[in-house]
Amino acid sequence: MDTRIDKAELLDTLSFWDKYLKRRVHCIACGGTALTLLNVKESTKDIDLIIPKPEDYKYLINILMDLGYRQVTGSGWQREKGFILDLFGEKTVFTTELLESPLESGNHFLLKEYSSLYLGILNYYDLIITKLFRYTSVDVEDCLSLLQERQNEIDIEKLKTRFIETSSYDISDEKNLKNFEYFMSILKNNSKK
Q1: What is the DSSP letter of 151?
Q2: Residues 86, 80: contact at Cβ < 8 Å?
Q3: CATH assignment of 5-122?
Q4: What is the C-alpha to C-alpha distance for residues 153 and 119, in angstroms, rounded to an integer?
Q5: pLDDT in tens, 115-172
């Protein structure tokens, strides 16, 4: 089943969760969720969130279980037959460990504050890095779209430096660097068109 979630549905889902929270919880959107909230993509197939504080992660999991969500993959939770919610702890997205917590200054920006839920979006550099570490065709297209939409806000040299530093801590360092080279050649070819 391929259930897609648009921006309105994402915000409605988070608003629904907020009604059950009794304290502040920080969520940072990443992956396709972030791109959908940024209006770069029309929809996403799942909800990807980083919960940087371990105590918030445990608390939110307990609330979601009370709401009928069940763990279906390592990071994935699902309610009935709906979308999959991927929750990542601390400073990890999929299998990529970020250089710093997404809550540190400059590593995210605020999208919306509900009564208890704080919704931020991961910075553009880490968004691109986490997608290029996975390097599926969808991830490459997403990165190209983000760079096209926000080209005046993204410094390619800063991206390269941050990518190399993040990759140096990853077990797949060489593969990641090759992915980045391929991506840069695609970007260069697209800019010539």
Answers
A1: G
A2: no
A3: 3.30.460.40
A4: 21
A5: 999 999 999 999 999 999 999 999 999 999 999 999 999 999 999 999 999 999 998 9
Is a pLDDT exceeding 80 seen at residue 69? yes
Nearest in space to 47 (alpha carbons), one of 16, 78, 1: 78
Q: Identity (one letter) of the amino acid at 18?
A: D
**Secondary structure (3-state) at 58:** helix
- Nearest CA-CA partner of 146 in 160, 125, 163, 165: 125
What type of residue is 38? Answer: L
Domain ranges of the chain: 5-122, 127-192
d(Cα 56, Cα 118) in Å, to the nearest integer? 11
79 forms bridges with which residues in the sheet? 69
Report the C-alpha gap between 173 and 165 in whole angstroms: 10
0.85 surpassed by pTM: yes
